[in-house]
Design brief:
Oligomer: single chain
Structural class: mainly alpha
Order of helices and strands: HHHHHH
Amino acid sequence: MERIMKAQALRDSSSSSYMMSKKTMEVNPTNPIIKSLREKVAADQSDKTVKDVIWMLYDTSLLTSGFSLDEPTTFANRIHRLIKLGLSIDEDEAAAEDEDMPALESTDEVPDSTMEEVD
């Protein structure tokens, strides 16, 4: 119902607040992923990777439950960071690769496009 209300063109924003469903996430404390995350959080609460993994768990549970994400670009950025981490790609290394790209060669010998001549 929430998705249907969001898709309405002439929707009333005041009525959408009570139509939003309350989201509840149940966590199994005996799950090996949750156990490992609890240990990592206990070791270092400011670890950005652990925070990304926790948010990824929440976002993926939203998606699998049929809800939509409020910020899909943030979700995609987290995925990219975790993929880089899994592939052992350093952020500085990736930036250096972009800088090493050669400039495009321009050739003046190519004639102008004939698409503009069509009338």
